[in-house]
TrEMBL record:
The keyword Ion transport does not apply. Gene3D superfamilies: Crotonobetainyl-coa:carnitine coa-transferase, domain 1 (3.40.50.10540), formyl-coa transferase, domain 3 (3.30.1540.10). Pfam families: CoA_transf_3. This is Unannotated protein.
């Protein structure tokens, strides 16, 4: 989606035998007719793409996919190891028909080694990389961060693709890129590995951090459940907070440095909570920010599209989906001076096989009779064969 939003013509290839699993992610029981096109996660992560269905296990479907690759710059796959080779779609196969093609492979654990046949999801990679080790509270079991890896892997793929395109511009050569998703997680968790080597085994800190104290999330006095987060970075901010809270019980910790504040963090948290419960969030944030103390309200999803900061910066863009109607979608945090607007998205997420005819007939030259035969034999389609 990152590439598509910047103008790349991204064609997502699925099949009616096995549509993308994100289409069905917690949506089938609740979204009714054509649930596979209404999924919230699907729509949020597939903006700006075109979509076709092709059964690559079928000779006709595989031939059409290869024909599509003849004019492609990039081919991306994230199947289990050696699936594409078995279908005749490995790098050497594609290079033979398009020497300049850049093939990007994103297997779970790499295409070599004892784990090469293992499959996995984002939460699996979070466990393997060590992120779960440091997520959660000290007295609880490890927690999965919950989807952290998916966008991080996508950004690594995007960076690798841009580098490969630049290399091809200089040399005329395509190449094969392998980005094991588990290794992306391990690369991002480098600090955990280094800390352990220096004798500081990672701990689950909850809302706390070694270099800040107090730090936490506190409920406020608003009628609805509203919370604020704050961090005290140094002794000066600590003195400012003590003066602001104005409670003798907190004055007892006035001379406490970082180490002592960590040792008494639970007691300090209880005092801060008593203070925040007595004031509305807006008042607390105004006072904390005016004193230079990092603080913010915890936004709920329902607040996102009305938050003045985001509205003023045109962070959201409305797109009209043919089935779901108009919805707001995030733009991207990368701002380019050549863009007159932040509204970078050109189209909503595609329905299943939405562009079959446009691409297969209009661009690959499939005849009307052949197209009808492909539908009849389930090589292509717009309805999943299994609901």
């Amino acid at each position: 989606m990152y590439l598509a939003s910047q103008g790349a013509d991204v064609i997502k290839v699925e099949s009616v035998q096995r549509p993308d699993v994100w289409r069905a992610n917690h949506t089938a029981p609740i979204l009714g007719d054509r649930w596979m096109d209404r999924g919230l996660l699907w729509q949020a992560t597939n903006l700006d793409k075109r979509d076709i269905t092709l059964d690559a296990s079928n000779d006709q479907g595989r031939a059409l996919l290869k024909q599509l690759c003849e004019g492609a710059d990039i081919f991306i796959e994230n199947y289990a190891s050696h699936v594409v080779e078995k279908q005749g779609l490995g790098y050497e196969d594609l290079k033979a028909i398009n020497p300049g093609i850049i093939m990007v492979r994103a297997p779970s654990f790499g295409n070599e080694g004892p784990w090469k046949s293992y499959v996995g999801w984002g939460d699996v990679f979070e466990q393997v990389s060590g992120f779960a080790t440091v997520t959660g509270y000290p007295d609880s079991r490890p927690q999965t961060p919950g989807g952290y890896m998916d966008p991080i892997v996508a950004m690594h793929l995007t960076t690798a693709i841009i580098a490969a395109l630049e290399y091809r511009d200089r040399t005329g050569e395509g190449q094969l890129i392998e980005v094991p998703q588990s290794e992306v997680g391990m690369a991002m968790a480098g600090a955990i590995l280094i800390a352990d080597q220096f004798g500081y085994p990672p701990e689950r800190p909850g809302n706390r951090a070694p270099g800040y104290a107090p730090q936490g999330v506190y409920r406020t006095g608003d009628a609805e459940k509203t919370y604020i987060a704050l961090s005290i970075r140094d002794d000066q901010e600590w003195q400012s907070l003590i003066a602001m809270v104005g409670m003798p019980t907190l004055d007892a910790f006035a001379a406490s440095g970082l180490k002592e504040r960590h040792e008494h963090h639970d007691e300090i948290d209880a005092i801060i909570l008593a203070w925040t419960l007595a004031h509305p969030a807006n008042d607390l944030l105004s006072r904390l920010q005016s004193a230079g103390i990092p603080a913010s309200r915890l936004l709920k999803p329902v607040d996102y599209n009305i938050e003045p900061q985001l509205v003023d910066r045109e962070y959201y863009q409305e797109l009209d989906h043919p089935l779901s109607g108009p919805r707001l979608f995030p733009t991207f945090p990368m701002h380019f001076s050549y863009e007159a607007t932040r509204k970078v998205h050109s189209r909503p997420a595609p329905t299943l096989g939405q562009h079959n005819e446009e691409i297969l007939r209009g661009e690959l030259g499939v005849t009307e009779a052949k197209y009808a035969d492909l539908i009849a034999s389930n090589v292509i389609g717009t309805e999943p064969l299994q609901s």
